[in-house]
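F.,

This is the one I mentioned.
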């Protein structure tokens, strides 16, 4: 692909425009990165006040499969990316017929379906949880007893722990499948986790791959709460292995763009791939403030066909997610503004708010990243920040 250079003018005389399908916080941070490099930006999202739509130069306000909307986006944009895992792969097929689209529809479709995704892990020789597909009632009786206790997950459209039901024993499986609406699901064996981490790689159209340092992740109620980089428990050998595996997963899909692979480390020390996201990832937000090239700049570069360079982490980082719960007093009363002045008085605190119209419990409203010369200092300040905001201790 010929690079789309920032500031270059197209046949319409306008500076080059990069487009993103989806208007959430990931799209917003992509838009910020693209704009800082001199691109115009366009967002397609049905929400009139989407976080990315509010900051892009152009907002095409239609559904993801609206033909006129997709045509408008193509007409505006020299290249297009996506930020939303559940953007219908069909929309990417339509766009991809006329413009460079990264990542491609096929790779996104693989990552959108837990059964396909696990199939890809196995084809690449990357260990994943023992599992079975439950697509119809007849499959319930065929599940191997060794998969229990397990977790039943919808094959598609799950996120932040949604679309999952714990299945303690074989007797609970039918009820769990009912509870998920009898749709195609994957039953996974519940594994004894020591901790979780993730790796972000970016792959260019010519096959070059770069990575961010792996990040260790702590979840609360199925939602990412804290990310630490460097990952305190991860050995250098396991970090290398995970980067190799993520690279293999990207290569064999001929992936173009930013790909995040989530891993479990089990009690016996072995690595297991959990899932992939075909886009920047919440656990990579620290890279905005702690690396010389962020995951969003990597997305801009892969979308526009610009060169990739290996990012360098210049500061230790701890990232804290800011959920809507923070906006509500403990007694459940009126909305309050969290004590931003209190946290910004601490050294190395970078506040990112996504501009969402209203706070809801469990909704990702923003994050803050604490950067410091070393991990111990980042940890110390992050704990102080959590205490100021009234976040649970970690
Ligand atoms: P989501 O798409 O919601 O992120 P995940 O499959 O990543 O779904 O599951 C969310 C969290 O649930 C994981 O980060 C992990 O903490 C836990 N989890 C998921 N699968 C398993 C498993 N097989 N064994 C143990 N814990 C699991
Ligand atoms: Mg996950």
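My design for it:
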């Amino acid at each position: 692909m010929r690079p789309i250079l920032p500031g270059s003018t197209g046949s319409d005389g306008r500076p080059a425009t990069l487009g993103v399908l989806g208007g959430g916080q990931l799209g917003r941070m992509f838009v910020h990165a693209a704009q800082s490099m001199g691109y115009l930006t366009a967002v397609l999202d049905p929400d009139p006040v989407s976080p990315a739509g509010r900051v892009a130069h152009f907002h095409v306000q239609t559904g993801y499969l609206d033909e006129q909307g997709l045509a408008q986006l193509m007409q505006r944009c020299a290249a297009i990316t996506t930020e939303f895992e559940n953007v219908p792969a069909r929309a990417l097929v339509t766009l991809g017929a006329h413009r460079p689209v990264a990542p491609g529809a096929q790779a996104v479709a693989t990552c959108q379906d837990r059964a396909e995704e696990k199939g890809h892990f196995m084809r690449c020789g990357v260990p994943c949880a023992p599992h079975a597909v439950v697509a119809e009632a007849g499959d319930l009786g065929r599940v191997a007893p060794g998969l229990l206790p397990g977790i039943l997950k919808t094959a598609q459209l799950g996120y932040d722990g949604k679309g999952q039901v714990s299945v303690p024993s074989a007797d609970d499986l039918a009820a769990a499948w009912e509870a998920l609406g009898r749709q195609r699901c994957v039953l996974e064996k519940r594994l004894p986790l020591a901790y979780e981490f993730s790796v972000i790689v970016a792959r260019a159209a010519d096959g070059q791959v770069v990575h961010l340092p792996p990040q260790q992740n702590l979840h609360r109620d199925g939602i990412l709460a804290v990310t630490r980089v460097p990952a305190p428990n991860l050995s250098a050998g396991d970090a290398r292995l995970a980067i190799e595996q993520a690279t293999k997963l990207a290569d064999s899909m001929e992936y173009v763009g930013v790909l995040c692979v989530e891993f479990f480390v089990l009690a016996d020390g072995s690595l297991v791939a959990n899932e992939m996201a075909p886009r920047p990832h919440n656990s990579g937000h620290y890279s905005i403030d702690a690396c010389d090239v962020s995951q969003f700049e990597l997305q801009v570069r892969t979308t526009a066909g610009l060169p990739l360079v290996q990012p360098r982490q210049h500061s230790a980082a701890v990232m804290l997610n800011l959920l809507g719960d923070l906006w509500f007093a403990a007694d459940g009363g009126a909305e309050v503004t969290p004590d931003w002045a209190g946290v910004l008085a601490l050294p190395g605190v970078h506040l990112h708010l996504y501009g969402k119209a209203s706070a809801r419990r469990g909704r990702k409203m923003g994050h803050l990243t604490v950067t410091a010369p070393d991990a111990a200092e980042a940890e110390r300040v992050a704990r102080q920040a959590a205490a100021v905001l009234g976040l649970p201790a970690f």
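The CA atoms of residues 7 and 13 lie 11 Å apart.

Talk soon.
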